[in-house]
Amino acid sequence: DVKVTQSSRYLVKRTGEKVFLECVQDMDHENMFWYRQDPGLGLRLIYFSYDVKMKEKGDIPEGYSVSREKKERFSLILESASTNQTSMYLCASRPGTNTGELFFGEGSRLTVL
Amino acid sequence: GENVEQHPSTLSVQEGDSAVIKCTYSDSASNYFPWYKQELGKRPQLIIDIRSNVGEKKDQRIAVTLNKTAKHFSLHITETQPEDSAVYFCAANQAGTALIFGKGTTLSVSS
Predict the structure, then answer these.
(1) Contact (CB<8Å) B99/A102
(2) Residue A97: what pLDDT?
(3) Å from B7 to nearest chain A CA?
(4) Are B103 and B90 in contact (CB under 8 A)?
(5) What is the pLDDT of residue A100?
(6) Whether the predicted pLDDT of B54 surpasses 80
(7) Going by C-beta distance under 8 Å and a sequence separation of 6 or more, which residues neighbour residue A97?
(8) Spatial separation of the C-alpha atoms in residues A43 and A37, rounded to whole Å
(9) Is residue B102 exposed (0-12), middle (13-18) or buried (19+ Cβ within 10 Å)?
(10) What pLDDT digit, counting tens, does each position of A2-34 carry?
(11) Residue B80 distance to chain A (closest CA, Å)
């Protein structure tokens, strides 16, 4: 069964803290994605990766960075968290075809105080 | 890059009625158009998708239509049931790019 696991379901951080959101998939998928979900704004693409050590900016990369050192793991990093980064973060993965179903994790709800 | 517009943002229907959600996309090179359903507190899950070489696709009570010339596609749900209540997202992309989603439609089915 397809599985995308996000390490933290709920996090509370303070402004200025460095935050790591981890995502692991066990399906040997080449492609991994980070989206941010806010009410009324849908799912907005932050960063994605098509291969190890490779990354591409999405529509809203400002204030974020990513790391993909291993094929199964894709990390989202907030270098200095701000209150406007309070949101639900969804990780997803997809096999190596260019289009096709995205498999989502359960999400990480981050609150920045 | 791709931009996907989705309407309406909310939709309320009576059980047994039909529901239609519409999306438009901007990039004529996009060739893959999926629809995701997200129930409250759960992750989005694919319910149906269509590729640009097909004009319509059906799966039981749900169907998707695609008009490439007008760059719009629609989700049709017939005989709605309370369990159809959820947020629905359309999306679009082409080979080599990431999926870009619409802002979502909250569907409420009352019995």
Answers:
(1) yes
(2) 63
(3) 12
(4) no
(5) 82
(6) yes
(7) none
(8) 5
(9) buried
(10) 699 998 999 999 999 999 999 999 999 999 999
(11) 23
